[in-house]
Amino acid sequence: MDPITQSEAASSLTDGQEAGSSGPANGHANAANGASSANGSTSAANGHGNSAGNGHGNAPNGNGNASSTPNGHQSAAVLQQRVDSDFRNVLGKGLAACRRNILTAGIFSFFVNILLLAMPIYLFQLSDRVYTSRSTDTLIMLSLVVGGAIVAHVFLDMIRRFILMRVAVETEAKLGAPVLSAAAKASQTGSNREFQLLGDLQHLRHFITGPVILLMMDVPVAPVYLAATFLIHPDLGWIVGGTGTILFIIAIINQKLTAVPYTQANTFAMRANLAADAMSRNSQVINAMGMIPEGVQIWGRETASSLKAHLAAQDRNIYMTGLSKLVRLFTQVAILGWGARLALRDDVTAGMVIAASIIGSRALSPIEGTIEGWRSFIQARAAYARIKTLLENSPLNWERLRLPRAEGRLTVERILYVPPPTKKVILNGISFELEPGESLAIVGASGSGKSTLARMLVGSIIPTAGNVRLDRMDLRNWDPRQFGQSVGYLPQDVQLFPASIKANIARMREDVTDEMIFDAAELADVHEMISHFAHGYETQVLIDGSPLSGGQKQRIGLARAFFGDPRLVVLDEPNSNLDGPGEVALANALSRAKRKNITVVAITQRPALLQSADKIMVIKEGTAQAIGKREDIMPLLAAANGAGKNGQMSPASQVFT
Ligand SMILES: Nc1ncnc2c1ncn2[C@@H]1O[C@H](COP(=O)(O)OP(=O)(O)OP(=O)(O)O)[C@@H](O)[C@H]1O
Ligand SMILES: [Mg+2]
């Protein structure tokens, strides 16, 4: 409840699980930022980020670094252990506190509502005692008591709202980082859907801070109120009870009538958002080829459908709400009218009738509100269930032994890859082994499965059958963070984070020394290129990669792959955008990597890179056509190519058909 627990909770937002360790993860993270639903929570995370981030940066330094391991490795390990234990505890211990607080708010609610009875009791007493006894003292006493009750009511009401507000913030803060981590991990199996769970989290927060939960907390007092009307006069009690039943039936009909159109409206709205998102990602293409009208049309179609469904739902909702309002107002008339009749017969006093009318409406309003808000309760519950399932089933829950530092022996055993919906075999029976420090070049026609294989070697997708092992250990059994630090990956479509070049090379880690960044830049031979920028390493890269050119991005991506002394580096067409000097730099980087005993797998379409490889693999339609030493494979490739005319290889696999 206090600010300390809040900031603690908030700090968990800033701990990423595997930030920036692999290319596809970058892509997804960008997509998540772009999605409108995720924006709110992202900015919230930033808001807390600074103070929390600094805290983590400093603490590990305090441990000292007696060993020769770079400081970054140690502190990262400490950070990782904390994040891991947070992840495992969040659903248990973490949320237990939230549940306890909601219960407390519920207890407060009970007293808030009981105190509200002061007003009708006051009325009651006025008409019964003050008017009959004509005592000013009694009037003053009663007024003081009711005044005190009102102050207590307002005070307790404020407290329960404060509590709920904090529970909401705490829930989102506690779950935010684990949900994003688990979503990023789940995207490994090829779907980005889990990133939308950040939206679910916001949904949950809105529900906890919204009016419905307060009304629901008022419900337990409704029977007390109903009993009070019965006590005043059974007839009045029956009127209130009967109305409650009618309102309940109307609300259920309302739910049934509006459920389908509301769901439709949401689905279309989501598709409209996706369309707008796609437009923003392809803004260059859209502007260049005058595709704005088409983009707007697609978005407009979805939006129009969403609005139409929404309108239909709202229309029905207005009818039913009107009906329930009618019933409620008639109830007031019925209580007052019937009450007057009872008063004429001297069964009750006028004050009792007015009191009964107030109590009656108090009894009905939480019931009505809860029924109206039932949909948002169901949605919030479903959102929570989805989040819970994601977190419980996430592989991040499993404890993994931290292994000794990898050497870089890569073993691939008969891997098969058949992504779920298509049933198309993309990789089939590929096996090879690389010793630490060995390099392999992979060539093959477009669509032959090279990039898929590369993603599999760095564990970003999981083979349907077969194994990929680093140092004899299956990738799935590696501690994800430790594995990430042991590998480097340059994807075919390089995406950088919107941050400085320095931060990008450092894989967005904050616990690194400048020396480590410089080492990576030196190894990848990009130091000179970076020096030519006006702001050098501090140059800010924007979300679309500007101000860097395609080739420059690729070279920064290369430095990122070599950052932190990885043992296995996988490069997917690292030279596709490079000029002559860029290719020379790449060749230098590869020979330096060899000297440092780094295992390298490079995919290429150009012969230049083949010269620096120990082994070559030719891949065709997902199967290895040939694999062997460079000296053995080169003549075959050369024969097929007419000795590599004009530097561009024709698809090498043609030879082997
Ligand atoms: N997630 C996926 N679902 C279905 N098919 C996929 C998936 N990923 C890749 N493919 C298919 O797998 C094949 C191999 O794709 P991959 O990107 O690995 O080719 P590549 O050899 O890298 O080609 P290029 O030289 O053009 O980069 C393609 O036919 C592609 O359509
Ligand atoms: Mg490719």
Describe this protein's structure.
The chain has two domains: 3-221 and 389-397, no CATH class; 410-656, 3-Layer(aba) Sandwich (Rossmann fold), CATH 3.40.50.300. It is 64% helix and 9% strand. The chain has 22 helices and ten strands. The strands form two sheets. Strands 6-7-8-3-9-10 form a six-stranded mixed sheet, sandwiched between helices. It has a four-stranded antiparallel sheet with strand order 2-1-4-5, covered by helices on one side. α1 packs across α3, α4 (71-116) runs antiparallel to α6 (136-186) and α5 runs antiparallel to α13 (350-393). The longest helix is centred in the middle third of the chain and has 53 residues, at 292-344. Bound molecules: adenosine-5'-triphosphate (ATP) and magnesium ion. Magnesium ion binds next to α14.
Keywords:
Rossmann fold; six-stranded mixed beta sheet; four-stranded antiparallel beta sheet; 22 helices; 657 residues; alpha/beta; binds adenosine-5'-triphosphate; binds magnesium ion; 9% strand; elongated
Number of domains: 2
Number of strands: 10
Q: Could you tell me which ligands this complex binds, including any ions or cofactors?
A: adenosine-5'-triphosphate, magnesium ion
- The quaternary organization reads as single chain
What is the percent of helical residues? 55-70%
- Helix-strand category: alpha/beta
The major beta sheet can be summarized as:
6 strands, mixed
Low-confidence stretches: 1-72, 643-657
Gyration radius (Cα, Å) is 33 Å
Q: Given the structure, what is the number of helices?
A: 22
Strand content is: 5-15%
Query: Averaging pLDDT over every residue, what do you get?
Result: 80
CATH class of the largest domain: Alpha Beta
The CATH topology of the largest domain is what?
A: Rossmann fold
